[in-house]
Design a protein that fits this description.
Oligomer: single chain
Order of helices and strands: HEHEHEHE
Strand content: 5-15%
Shape: globular
Radius of gyration: 15 Å
Number of helices: 4
Structural class: alpha/beta
Strand order of the largest sheet: 2-1-3-4
Amino acid sequence: MSLLYKATAWLADYMYAAWRQLRGYLSRRKSYDFREGHLTPVLILPGVYERWRFMLPIVRELHQQGHPVHLVEALRDNRMPVAAGAQLADAYMAEHDLHDAVIVADSKGGLIGKHGLSFGESAGRVRRMD
């Protein structure tokens, strides 16, 4: 793989991330707009430096399919330690009485989900993690 190809791929990746951050920032949707649905509940865990709106395309798609989508706003831009993020996700699932849920995570959100499943209360509430 050439250096030019790698640099182009890196630049495209960061341009996409910047564009998604800007689109999310400009969105007026609220996290509670997506909590209704008749299918399996989904908990979204974004990556580091990402707020939940970064994942808005997948949030909208899952919600349109009929899933109640839950977003842990307390994670903010997800710069806290993994264990602290897992505690917030566990507390959210308990507060909203989520059971048989699916976790959809990006990057550090996956570490938070795995930590919660391994050491937190999440294991009894989660069907799987994607």
